[in-house]
């Protein structure tokens, strides 16, 4: 019997976003990106290869996934089997510790945890760089969740060179990310569809590539210098320029809802009133607010009044992949 292995990986929030693939099969991105791994939201995944199984069996939060819903998971298992020289099917059981109905993306933590658990369960002992490449094959943003703290996903040009590199694993800087849960429902346009539409139809896509190159070159020294204002200004502008690719696609679409705009206005008001903070958004209406620890009480109080206190979640820099004792 092969061992059951459990891995834990945390979600990450991109400060310089990934929005578009150069290779849709290998998930090679058009540009590099940079994120912060978060401590509050994570996935635990257990994998065991079992000769008694006649198909892969994938359970997420106690629900068995249909073959269609488990397609990306089985793709990663196939890659692991290929590397390990196995033909055995696997039992995968995953628990998302992203607050119920938070509407926050769990694919980053999910595919990072899957890569960690499946590879070891198959007897492979991959480096963290190779784990990031494996996680990438499930979902692009998962590449970065192998490492903790600030992480760069270097776009590269092929399967070997497209990988995560830790930029600052130990974050000794009192910063926080406040996640505002504005709409718990599943997004209508998946990131995968949305980014592909931006690449192929937005006339601004070439400009986006230049934006990312500039933002990466300026955000790295700003992080190293712990220059909160500069990091905040870069991440806010980068997020809005990513969303400009959705508005400029054909047909146009948007992940904003009315509350997203209200929350962004509140961030600007808080800033004017002296509580420095900056917003970012991903492929959904929830707004995430980058701030300093000292300003958390004022900022969380304001959003709790505006929305509801159970819709205001506070996260800090989090760790990279871990393996748990069964
Ligand atoms: C990011 N997002 O950098 C960007 C910003 C959302 C907005 O990566 O197709 O689920 O599986 O590679 O990683 C979300 O897209 O897409 C994402 P696939 P993924 O975090």
From TrEMBL:
Provide the GO biological process annotations.
isopentenyl diphosphate biosynthetic process, mevalonate pathway
Superkingdom assignment: Bacteria
Please report which protein family the annotation says this sequence is part of.
Belongs to the diphosphomevalonate decarboxylase family.
Is this entry keyworded Coiled coil?
Answer: no
Residues spanning the signal sequence: none
Q: Which GO terms describe its molecular function?
A: ATP binding; diphosphomevalonate decarboxylase activity
Organism this protein belongs to: Candidatus Levilactobacillus faecigallinarum
Q: What is this protein called?
A: diphosphomevalonate decarboxylase
The protein's Enzyme Commission number: 4.1.1.33
Residue span, Diphosphomevalonate decarboxylase-like N-terminal domain: 9-164
Mvd1 C-terminal domain spans which residues? 178-309
InterPro entries (alphabetical):
GHMP_kinase_C_sf, Mev_decarb, Mev_diP_decarb, MVD-like_N, Mvd1_C, Ribosomal_Su5_D2-typ_SF, Ribsml_uS5_D2-typ_fold_subgr
Q: Could you tell me the keywords of this UniProt record?
A: ATP-binding, Lipid biosynthesis, Lipid metabolism, Lyase, Nucleotide-binding
Q: One GO CC term of this entry?
A: cytosol
């Amino acid at each position: 019997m092969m061992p059951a292995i459990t891995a834990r990986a945390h979600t990450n929030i991109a400060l310089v976003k990934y929005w578009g693939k150069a290779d849709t099969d290998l998930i090679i991105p058009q540009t590099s990106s940079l994120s912060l791994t978060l401590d509050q939201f994570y996935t635990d995944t257990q994998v065991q290869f079992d000769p008694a199984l006649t198909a892969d069996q994938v359970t997420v939060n106690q629900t068995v996934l249909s073959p269609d819903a488990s397609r990306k998971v089985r793709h990663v298992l196939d890659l692991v089997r290929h590397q390990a020289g196995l033909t055995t099917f696997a039992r995968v059981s995953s628990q998302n510790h992203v607050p119920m109905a938070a509407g926050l993306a769990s694919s980053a933590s999910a595919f990072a945890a899957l890569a960690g658990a499946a590879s070891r369960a198959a007897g492979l002992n991959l480096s963290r760089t190779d784990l990031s490449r494996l996680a990438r094959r499930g979902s692009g943003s998962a590449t970065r969740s192998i490492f903790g703290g600030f992480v760069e996903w270097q776009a590269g040009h092929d399967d070997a060179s497209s990988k995560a590199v830790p930029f600052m694993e130990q974050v000794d800087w009192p910063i926080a990310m406040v996640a505002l849960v504005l709409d718990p429902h599943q997004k209508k346009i998946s990131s995968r569809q949305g980014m592909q539409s931006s690449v192929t139809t937005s006339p601004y896509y070439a400009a986006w590539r230049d934006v990312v190159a500039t933002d990466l070159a300026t955000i790295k020294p700003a992080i190293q210098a712990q220059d909160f204002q500069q990091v905040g200004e870069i991440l806010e502008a980068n997020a809005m320029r990513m969303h400009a690719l959705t508005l400029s696609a054909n047909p146009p679409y948007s992940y904003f809802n009315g509350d997203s705009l209200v929350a962004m206005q509140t961030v600007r008001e808080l800033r004017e009133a002296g509580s420095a903070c900056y917003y970012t958004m991903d492929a959904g209406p929830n707004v995430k607010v980058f701030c300093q620890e000292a300003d958390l009480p004022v900022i969380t109080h304001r959003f709790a009044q505006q929305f509801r206190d159970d819709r205001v979640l506070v996260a800090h820099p989090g760790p990279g992949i871990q393996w748990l004792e069964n």
